Amino acid sequence: MISKTTEIEKIVLPTPFLVGPVNVYVIKGDSLTLVDTGPNTLEAKEYLTKALNNLGFTPTDIEQVILTHHHPDHVGLIEELFSHAKIIGHEKCDLWLRKDLTFVSAIEDYFYRFFKSHSVSEELIKKMVKANRYFLSFTGKKGLDMKVKEGDTIPGLPGWKVIETPGHAQSHISLFHEAERLLIGGDHIIAHISSNAILEPPYNKGEDRPLTLLQYREALKKCLNLNVSKVYSGHGETVEDLKGLLDIRFMEHEEKALRLKGMIPKEGITSFELCQLYFRHIYLKEPMLTMSEIIGHLDLLEVREEIETRSRNGIIFYFKK
Ligand SMILES: [Zn+2]
Questions:
Q1: What is the pLDDT of residue 4?
Q2: CA of residue 307 to ligand 1 center, whole Å
Q3: Against a cut of 0.70, is the pTM above it?
């Protein structure tokens, strides 16, 4: 059998977000496939339409769109440009896309209680809820047409399979082409910035919250075992030396955890106090990202039994063991 080399075209789109431009990919499989869409802004819409034209296509030629995860810089244009196409992603992505009111208010309730127990100020909690609503305003209401999970193949895209890579987002999937050792990694693997393992509530009643940094590290190890030769990322350059990059990322986690542990006083401290000490004024601007960083690394230390938590009047304090 003659194997055809996979043709992947990278398109870089502007975003209004802190992260900067986002990459989307056209895969010329049996079905013309787009991985991620960019944000729902006029600028991104024009850029994407023009880039597709340059490749000899129009948006209506795209037959299916695969979403790496639910964040607004990746899913914004599904309604605007691709309402005709089959939208594919992880089932957890669907809830965010449809913006089901029960789901959204459950998230807000959860975070309110969660951050209260971590002694975050009322004002900052409100800011986080507001930011979440702001991000949701960059997506439409169209949900998925097809839900995929670990190991699934995708119709019209022979050779590729789905790898679940939760951590940065619970909905995160990557696409792996085994024969050519290619990975489309979304925001799971980024060359120039360490991906934030963002806090998310549990998706099912009675479950504990996911330990996002621990999940993220497991998912990185999973990708390492795939013997990937090239990663197409959601932001920035393609990654050719995955092992080298991940060695740096794992080292950064260790350094951060060690530094945080060193900051825990004898009498104990809350994660929010640690966040203020560690991130100085940045925590005011980016409360969700900075609290995710702090709690993620505290989770790592706690699982390793280097630290422990004690609850005092409903507030969680961290202690060195
Ligand atoms: Zn993201």
A1: 55
A2: 29
A3: yes
